[in-house]
Amino acid sequence: MFGIFKKKTKAEKLQEKYNKLMKQWHELSSTNRAESDKKYTEANAILEQIENLKKI
């Protein structure tokens, strides 16, 4: 019930952004290969940030 007041950590925000980009990548993969590749590159950059946060 009180979970609505809980603030998300930076890692949680990045994970949501990563999931959103991967979903877009998958949808574009069959229609627009260039845009699909851009989304995949963005998602990988965010994944690296998430991994760096876990190391700390």
From TrEMBL:
Family matches, as InterPro entries: DUF6435
Which spans of this chain does the record mark as coiled coil?
4-31
Protein keywords = Coiled coil
Q: Does the keyword field hold Coiled coil?
A: yes
Say yes or no: keyword Coiled coil present.
Answer: yes
What is the protein name stated in its UniProt record?
Lacal_2735 family protein
Species of origin reads: Lacinutrix gracilariae
